[in-house]
Structures are given as C-alpha cells and as structure tokens.
Fold this protein.
Amino acid sequence: MTIHEPGLAELIQRNAERITFTTEMDELLAGARLLFVCVDTPPTYSGDADLSRVRAVVEELPVDSDHVLIMKSTVPAGTGDSIRRDMPGLSYVSCPEFLKEGTAVADFQNPDRVVVGSDPGDEQAAAAVEALYRPLGGEILHTDVSSAEMIKLASNAFLATKISFINEIANVCEEVGADVGEVARGMGLDERIGSSFLRAGIGYGGSCFPKDVTALKMLAGNSGYHFQLLNSVIEVNELQKRRVVGKLGAHLGSLLGKRVALLGLAFKPDTDDMREASSLVLAARLQGEGAEVVAYDPVARERASELLGSVEMADSALAALDGADAAVLVTEWREFAELDWSEAAARMARPLLVDGRNFLDPVALRAAGFEYEGIGKKQEIGAPS
Ligand code: UDX
C-alpha cells in the first residue's frame, strides 16, 4: 500500500542508509534502545479507542533496563498507567504526535511543542526522549503520563470545537446576511482567539478529529462525567455535511434524477485519506434524495472507489462537470483554483456551484457564468448568474 504524503518518500530515500527495516523482534531489540509504538487506535463500536493493536505490540516488548517504550499512538488517559501496572519495571514515556496529514514531514521536523510524559522512576527515559527531540526545536514540556495523554485528546477536541463553532457562526451569518470569512478574520486578530482552525466549511473529517472527539467523550462518560460540549461539537459536524443538500435543493427543487458533481473526495487536500471524509456522507445523502452522483479527486480516486461503489468516478474535474446540474467543491485541491471555470460553466447543464470550503473566488465564478453559493455567506438564491 502506498501513502500519499508530500515529502515522505523523499525523506525516506535521503536517509535510506540510516534506516533498517525488519520484521524480526530480536533484531529490532538488539539494535534499538528507544522503542516507539505508532500503531493506530481506531474507534470500536462503543466509540472507545480500540487498543488491541497497542496491546499486541506492547506484549511483545521486553521489560528490561535496556529499552524504553515510547507511546506515540493516541490512547485514552490512563492507558500508560494500565500498561505499567501490567508490566512492572517497564520504562514508559508518553510522547503524543501532533502532526497533520498533508504536512506531516514539515510538522514533524518543526514541532511547536514536544510533550514528554513520564512518571517517577522514568526520569532517565524521559531525558533520553528529550535529547532525541531537542534538535528539532519547539518547546519541550515535561508532564506526568496521564496529563500527556490528555493533552493530545484535549488538543484535537479543542480544534474540532473551533471548527464546529465557526460552522455554527457561518450558519447564523447566512441568516443575517454576514460573511463568515470576514467574521473569522476579525475574531482571529484577537490573539486570545487566534486565526487558525476558523475556516468554515462542510465539516471536519479524517483519521483523528472524529475518532478522538468521540474517544474523549467516551473516556469522560466511562469515568462518570457527561462531556456535554463535545456532544454538540459532534452533532454540528454531522449536520454541517448535510446542509449542502438543502442548499442544492433551494436552487434545484427536487434532486431526483439531477446529476451532481463532487469535486474532491479526500477529507482534506494533499492526502488520499478517505477516513470520515465529508464526501462519504454527502454522496450518500445526495443518492438518498435520488440524485445521480459523479465525482473526481486527483489522488483519492482508488480508495474512494472502494467506499463509493455506486458513484461514477470521472478522470478530470471538467469530465465530472460535463452535463451536471450542480457541482459541490468538497476538498480544496489547488487544481480546482486553476480550473478553466468558463469552460466548466459551458459544459454543465446548469452552472451552479456550492463551494463547501469557501475556496474559490465568488466574483470570478459569477463572471464565468456560475450561480455561486459558499458556506456562511449571503444567500444568492434566485440571483441572476
Ligand atoms: C489533525 C490535527 O490537526 C493534528 O494535530 C493531529 O495530530 C491529527 O489530527 P489532520 O486530521 O491531519 O490533523 O488534519 P487537519 O488539518 O487538522 O484537518 C482536519 C479536518 O478539519 C479536515 O477535514 C479539514 O478540512 C477540517 N478543517 C480544518 C476545517 O474544516 N476548518 C479548519 O479551519 C481547519
């Protein structure tokens, strides 16, 4: 399986002589002191994090003074305590990862902070992890293991909260005739708020936010605390994906038999990751309304085809737009900004575009002949194109 991550293949190639791959545990243990556990922790049916892969790896590791287990996987607070209870004498450090897909290499090489969580007795192990990361820069924060685990979950939940918040503001902006882009810019200038993660759109997806917000909610619930705010964050995100259907309906009436083109399928640009992508829910909802869905994504096509069997996959954006009654920009791939939109308008049965990421220039799109609808902008229903 190949992973689409800009710069990753080049990084591995540049360091090829210093990287050894093995499937033999003995070989690994003989050559390394710091053992990073980096397996995924997908959600279980209950919404808790599935720790079976973490457990499978940890059970193979030795308890000795030569090795340190460093937990990179995102695990619920309390996991480190439980592993250390099961394996007394194990040197254990929690060092959560905060990189983003699409910019993973740059994020890893320039961390804004490195969290090193350890408990009494593991000071040397924590110092070894700090020494490894120090050359990368960024503030190094030492905490206990449980706090380090919580920092990761709380950070993702907070960023998701910011997105759901601005999406609700966007929905109110549509009601009152304000522009969420202007509102976010004005809010972001307040350094207490900050400008990042205030891009309104059709909701967050990916391998982390949906899973980690639910995992934190469940962790709280399992510990006896009802995390009310996160329920709303999740619900707003679910509804946000569906609002696009209403926007199309306001222009087209019934969607039965209408051909709708989805531009972009991956959960964000510069990745082929389809996990929890908004496109999955949107495509299903459109098909539920009887629409015929055609889609194009520059890199996620293969993965998307496995999940969206009944969606027609086009070879280019223009091919997807051919004869379509409407288009939805789902993922803000750069090539969509460079598309010949006049040509696109000419090819469509009705040049109507819902820009689910507020990515394109409304003035240019309208000049090209489009009825353009963004998220959190004044409604244009009925306006001449
Ligand atoms: C996220 C965290 O940012 C990262 O720190 C953590 O290690 C893993 O999870 P990632 O999922 O790769 O990273 O992508 P991110 O850029 O955070 O975007 C997540 C989702 O939020 C995407 O669907 C994106 O489109 C959406 N998003 C992001 C918005 O809708 N608005 C924003 O302002 C920012």
Notes: Residues 97-101, 156, 159, 163, 197-199, 201, 204-206, 208-209, 267-268 surround uridine-5'-diphosphate-xylopyranose (CB under 6 Å). The mean pLDDT is 95.
